[in-house]
Structures are given as structure tokens and as C-alpha cells.
Design goal:
The chain has a 5-stranded parallel sheet with strand order 8-4-3-12-21, with helices on one face. The C terminus is likely disordered. It is of the alpha/beta class. The radius of gyration is 22 Å and the shape is globular.
Length: 563
């Protein structure tokens, strides 16, 4: 399957006005990017490392992670049990080898995070405080500051980078495009650095490897829990560079995002699943606990189950939201476990101690991304990917709660194990003759609204065709050069790949819900890979079919990578 109209083969941008060199460039400064930088530096301190981040070091999605980080850390828990829960949530689309890496290496990685200075919550007796979230059959979620886990991890990682001045950092830097050598491999990348950075305007970093850790694509949709910087830049850059994307159709919509009204847009306040883990439950206007009888785990069912149930109930009642009832938890629990959420609710005029909280699903996480093997390698020599920008295979069709921070931690460590020995020789970038284009920034809102209404929680062939037709109608000609148009063009690129993949997957599986194909199909379903043809069209095709039983999938390696 191919898109209705080509997308730009590269972003239209000025020629680089400055150049610099680094052995390795890490794009992104969340848990995945900073872990990769710290571990690569520890593996070979002689390498010149450069971390580039679109905003400041503390921005991005990691700081917003409320619930925590999942790992088999409790005395009654095991990696095997964590593996089983992950595979069940992944709905038969996980790579079992990747999941096994995640759950077996996860506990040690979390303990190293603690040794780095991360201050997780503990019980009075000194043992680590663990809670439970949707899809987990054990208490295995380590948290910090009650519901400020991501912020605490980000703080500890930034402090560690500041203790390693050899790691260069450039803030306010948007990665524009990859520079490639004669063999198609990494030779560098172009950046646009705003005035707050060390250099102004577009420049080039010549390097031997690039690690993408740039996060997700949440701003594809009009309502998301993702920060404004999540415009799919890394995925679009990788696609234009010749990498394959995998399973972009598996977009997770968090079931409990605070509803702010019909005209709200952009980043929305997340009400963590951990609130339901502590005993809060969902009700409709009549006070009916509609999750009872829907799933054996009721309010703690996997996120796709809860999001679908909420959407169905909203459709039945004609209401734009349902309610989260946590009044019985009491003020002490809210203040101790969820001080951040309590404050956010208060700022929007709701007191969850005494009032119901209006909630509805909103885009939260994409399980697909740049296809990698178990060591973070992509199909482009010298290009690695980790965290939400990557598809490592661990999430399958639906991410298990709090596995995202762990994925970034574990697979960034694995990249650091192999990258120093695999560094490419220096090569000169070759001229990129592909079509350069830009979509006007003014079209961004319309794109988001079409993606939300046609490629959101509910999908149908007619709506997907309408979305692809709209995306194909967007002109990419004489738009004003700059970050707004670059971001909008990246949104067009990843939206096209996402809609193509969703149209190709004619089944309902995990977070991908096709109203016209409501059943799961294990006879022909597999992974959907996307890539960019030489003429700029986005192509998509099936790869292999997973096993029917998610506990015993017979899957080959995630992706073939160059030698």
C-alpha cells in the first residue's frame, strides 16, 4: 500500500552556516537519551559526545511520567510474571525476545538508577514502595514523590550529566535531517539552534553515529498528554533517511485524561492509572461502575480495554466524558500519593477529595516507531533508536502501564554496550538530491483535527481514506522556512505513515480499533512496516505473523540490520 501523494524527501532549509564534529550525537534528553549518553561515556570516555535537545534538558515526556517505572522488584514478583503481563497486554504482537530482555535486565537497571541518585519512595521500614497499575498482576511499580516519578528520574539524570562535563549539550536545537555517506549510512545531521543555544540558525554536525531518543508523535492529534515538542521529528527524520518504521498504527490513548471542555486542545492533564491502582474507579453519570463485568481486572484492565469501554459508554450516554471517583481514598492518600495530580485538578477547579473528576481518553503513547533490533540498531548504518521513538518490540499492540520508562532505560544501556565497537569511520556527507518541501504551519490544526476524528480511538476504512485524502491535499511548496513549518511537515510525514498502517491492518488488536473489522485476526496479522520510496511516497507492507498464543510467540528477530 502506498500513500495518495508523496511527502517531502527532505525538509527545505538553508545550507548549514556552521559545522562541528562529534563521534556520537544523541538526539533527545529524556530517560532514553541521557541514559544512552551517560552509558556511552562510561563505556569509552575518549569519545566526543553531543546531546542535542529541542527545548531544555528538563523538557520532554519523561518529566510527565506520573505512575512510575515497572520492574520485578518485589519479593513475590519475578521477571517471568512481568513478561507474561507484558505479552498479554501486547495482544500477540510483542517480540518475546525483546520482552525477555526488558524484564530480565529491568531490575538491575532500576537499581543502577537508584545508585545514580534517583530517590524512589520507600516504606517506613526501608523497603521500596511498590504499587500496581492496569494489566499488572503484581505490585511492581516503583514511584517517586508519589506521582512525580518522571520528574525525579529526570532530575537525577541531569545531575549525572552535569557531573560529566565531557558530554556536550546543545539546548533549543531541532534536528532537521540526517546527513548520509556514500553507503547511505550516517555521516552527520543538520540542526537548527535557536538563539538560546550555542549557535544560531542551521548548522551541521559531522559524526559517526546518531542515537535517536526524541520521543513520540503526540502532537499529531488535537488532544494529547504529550508536551508540545512531541511532533514526531525523530521518526520523520529516520523515515527520510531510509529507515523503516514499524507498527505506527498502535497508538495508545490513555483512558483517564482530565476533560477540560469541548474547545480544549494541546497537552491535557493526565490522571495516572496509579490512582485506580490505589482504589479509584470509573462511573458514568448514573453512578454505574461500567468496568465491572467488562474485564476480569475491572478498572485495572489494560489501557486499550478501558479506553474502548469509556468511549462506548460515552457513545451510549451522549456525554463527552465519564467520571473518576476517588473520593473514598481520603485527603491523606491524595496528598501523599498524588500531590501533583491533586494540584493540577485544583488548578482546573476540581477537588478530587470531594468531587468526581471528569475524564476521557486522549492520545498518550505510540507503541510503534523506528524499527530496531535488540541492540537499538536501525536499518540505516550508524543510526540507533531508543525510547518512544523506537519500536523495540516490547509493547506489541498495547503498552503495559509503566513499561515505557523501563524500555528507554534498558535499551539505551544495550546501545551503549555495542556502539563504541561498531562506530563507523568518518565519511563525508553526499549531496541529497531528493525533493525538498515544507507544509505551512497554518495547516497544523486542521491536520490534528482530521487525525483525531478519523485516525483516533475509533477507526473505519472510510475515515482512514478521508484522512489520507486530506493529508495528500496538503501543499508543501513555498511555506516560510523555520521550526513551525518543519514540525508541521514532520507531522504530515508521520501522520501519513500512521494512517497507511492503520488502513492496512484490517483487524482490531490492542490499541488499534477498527469498527469495520471488530475482531482480532491471528491467521494473517503481523507487523506493518513503513518506508519512504525514492519518489517520496510512503509505502507499507505486512511482515511476519505472530503466534496465536501470546505466551509462546514464534517470531524472528525484530528487523534485519546492515552488517
Amino acid at each position: 500500500m502506498t500513500s495518495h501523494r508523496p511527502v517531502p524527501g527532505r525538509l527545505r532549509a538553508p545550507a548549514p552556516g556552521w559545522t562541528t564534529r562529534a563521534d556520537v550525537v544523541v538526539v533527545g534528553s529524556g530517560i532514553a537519551g541521557l541514559t544512552a549518553a551517560l552509558r556511552i561515556h562510561a563505556a569509552d570516555p575518549s569519545l566526543r559526545l553531543l546531546v542535542v535537545t529541542k527545548d531544555v534538558l528538563g523538557a520532554g515526556s519523561t518529566q510527565w511520567a506520573q505512575g512510575g517505572i515497572a520492574a520485578a522488584l518485589g519479593p513475590e514478583d519475578t521477571p517471568e510474571q512481568h513478561e507474561r503481563d507484558t505479552l498479554v497486554a501486547g495482544a500477540g504482537a510483542c517480540d518475546v525476545e525483546a520482552v525477555r530482555v526488558l524484564v530480565t535486565e529491568g531490575p538491575g537497571a532500576v537499581h543502577e538508577l537508584i545508585a545514580l541518585g534517583t530517590q524512589f519512595d520507600h516504606h517506613p521500614g526501608g523497603e521500596l514502595s511498590l504499587t500496581r497499575e492496569g494489566g499488572h498482576l503484581r505490585d511492581r511499580i516503583a514511584h517517586a514523590g508519589g506521582d512525580a516519578t518522571g520528574a525525579e528520574i529526570q532530575r537525577a539524570l541531569i545531575a549525572a550529566v552535569e557531573r560529566a562535563p565531557e558530554i556536550g549539550v546543545v539546548q533549543h536545537a531541532l534536528a532537521v535531517d540526517l546527513l548520509r555517506g556514500d553507503d547511505g549510512g550516517v555521516a552527520g545531521l543538520t540542526l537548527h539552534v535557536l538563539g538560546e543555544g550555542r549557535r544560531d540558525g542551521v548548522g551541521a554536525v559531522h559524526c559517526r553515529a546518531v542515537v535517536l531518543a526524541s520521543g513520540g508523535l503526540g502532537q499529531v492529534f488535537s488532544q494529547s498528554t504529550n508536551p508540545s515538542v512531541s511532533t514526531g521529528d525523530g521518526m520523520a527524520l529516520a523515515l527520510r533517511a531510509g529507515a523503516r518504521l514499524r507498527d505506527l498504527e498502535f497508538v495508545q490513548f490513555h483512558p483517564t485524561v482530565m476533560w477540560l471542555g469541548p474547545d480544549s486542545s494541546g497537552q491535557q492533564p493526565l490522571i495516572s492509572e496509579a490512582v485506580r491502582g490505589e482504589g479509584a474507579h470509573l462511573v458514568d453519570d448514573a453512578g454505574d461502575r461500567f468496568m465491572l463485568g467488562t474485564h476480569e481486572l475491572a478498572d485495572l484492565a489494560p489501557r486499550d480495554v478501558v479506553a474502548k469501554a469509556i468511549t462506548r459508554r460515552m457513545g451510549e450516554t451522549g456525554r463527552p466524558h465519564v467520571w473518576l471517583d476517588g473520593r473514598h481514598l481520603g485527603r491523606a492518600v491524595w496528598e501523599r500519593r498524588f500531590p501533583t495530580i491533586l494540584g493540577v485538578c485544583g488548578r482546573h477547579g476540581v477537588d478530587p477529595v470531594s468531587e468526581l473528576v471528569p475524564v476521557a481518553p486522549a492520545q498518550h503513547y505510540v507503541s510503534g516507531g523506528v524499527a530496531t533490533d535488540l541492540w537499538g540498531r536501525t536499518t540505516v548504518p550508524g543510526l540507533y533508536a531508543t525510547g518512544e521513538v523506537a519500536c523495540s518490540g516490547v509493547h506489541g499492540a498495547n503498552r503495559l502501564a509503566s513499561n515505557s520508562l523501563l524500555e528507554g532505560l534498558v535499551f539505551s544501556r544495550r546501545i551503549a554496550e555495542v556502539l563504541p565497537a561498531e562506530l563507523r569511520p568518518w565519511s563525508e556527507p553526499v549531496a541529497d538530491e531528493r525533493h525538498a518541501g515544507l507544509v505551512a504551519a497554518e495547516r497544523r490544526r486542521a491536520l490534528q483535527e482530521v487525525m483525531t476524528s478519523r485516525v483516533g480511538v475509533l477507526r473505519h476504512a472510510d475515515g482512514l481514506d478521508e484522512a489520507l485524502a486530506f493529508l495528500g491535499s496538503l501543499e508543501h511548496g513555498d511555506a516560510e522556512v523555520g521550526p513551525p513549518a518543519w514540525e508541521t511537515t514532520n507531522l504530515l510525514t508521520v501522520s501519513t505513515a500512521l494512517a497507511e498502517a492503520a488502513a492496512l491492518r484490517t483487524e482490531t488488536r490492542g490499541s488499534h480499533w477498527r469498527e469495520d473489522h471488530p475482531d482480532r485476526d491471528d491467521t494473517g496479522a503481523g507487523h506493518v512496516d513503513s518506508w519512504l520510496e525514492p519518489d517520496g511516497t510512503v509505502a507499507a507492507e505486512w511482515t511476519y505473523a505472530p503466534a496465536t498464543d501470546p505466551s509462546t510467540p514464534s517470531t524472528p528477530s525484530n528487523v534485519e540490520v546492515p552488517a
